[in-house]
TrEMBL record:
Signal peptide: none annotated. This is Dinitrogenase iron-molybdenum cofactor biosynthesis protein. It comes from the Archaea. Residues 14-102 form the Dinitrogenase iron-molybdenum cofactor biosynthesis domain. CDD domains: MTH1175. Gene3D superfamilies: Dinitrogenase iron-molybdenum cofactor biosynthesis domain (3.30.420.130).
């Protein structure tokens, strides 16, 4: 299973969770089974690229996204891509993964979606 976290750089598990999901410069992907960690640049429309993060991450085989928060449109796009999203992640990628594994993150829903860019 591949788990993704929006991040600022390419520091692997020590990178910091980016607070603004769509504008995260990178996405760090952890393969839970193999332990492989890699980061990919965010080349989506927010950065003048093509496509949206859910599409790009689905192509990478991501099944779970952990982030601080995101808007209702992004939640809907992840649902359509078959990627489960959990909110409330903070700290490092390692912290976010641990919180998710311990059941401390909430599944993203329309009710807990960000309505403004205050996340």
């Amino acid at each position: 299973m591949k788990v993704c976290v929006p991040t600022y750089e390419m520091k692997g598990l020590d990178d910091t969770v980016c607070e603004h999901f769509g504008r995260a410069p990178t996405f760090t992907i952890l393969d839970i089974e193999s332990g492989e960690v890699r980061a990919i640049p965010n080349t989506s429309e927010h950065f003048g690229g093509i496509g949206l993060p859910p599409e790009a991450l689905a192509k990478e085989g991501v099944e779970v996204m952990l982030c601080g928060g995101l808007g209702p449109r992004a939640i809907m796009m992840f649902e359509q891509a078959g990627i489960d999203v959990f909110v409330g992640a903070a700290g490092t990628v390692r912290d976010a993964i641990r919180a998710w594994q311990e059941g401390r993150l909430s599944e993203a829903t329309d009710e807990n979606a960000c309505r403004e860019h205050r996340h």
